[in-house]
Amino acid sequence: MLEQNEAMPPSSQALAQKTRGAERHDEPPDTARPPRRDTQIDDLQTEIDAELAKLAEVETRRAQREHSQRLVRELAEAKRARKEAEVIERLEAEHGPLDKRILRIDTDEGMIVVRKPDPRLYQRFVDQGKTNTEALSKLVRPHVVYPDKTELTRIFEEVPAALMRCADAVCFLAGVRKQEAEGK
Length: 184
Known about the structure:
Elements: H1 2-7, H2 10-26, H3 29-32, H4 39-95, E1 102-107, E2 110-115, H5 119-128, H6 133-140, E3 144-146, H7 149-158, H8 161-174, H9 178-181
Antiparallel strand pairs: 1-2, 2-3
Helix pairs in contact: 5-6, 6-8
């Protein structure tokens, strides 16, 4: 285009410049140049953008922390499951099959395994006719084969209902079924 202007006579060049200038002025005013923006609006938008960026950073950190915590929990659960499977395997070899000679009671604090009750201890429990925690404890504790006494006490302190669940398991291994317990 520059070459064409150089080839034009000076008067044509001046006319072309006027025409180009006229094109700019002939456009409607709102498309000729962008409207002037309010600096307050710009500042507010900038502040909003900065806050949203900070929020995204916080949410990203939280998501990473939650993901890490979930992985730690999953690892702990996998280790616990492996350990408990090994314990069950050992106890089955020692006491007999699961659900026939031993029962597993799962709690949030760990697994408890009880064995089939000694007939004399079970009969003594039945003859007492009491189901208070002392009587249940006397029935359950001698029949717990896993965990050790200290850990069992800790579990019972953390999950008090575990004692009742263990007593139910011991009674089940003794032959009590739900219908019999309900008097049907």
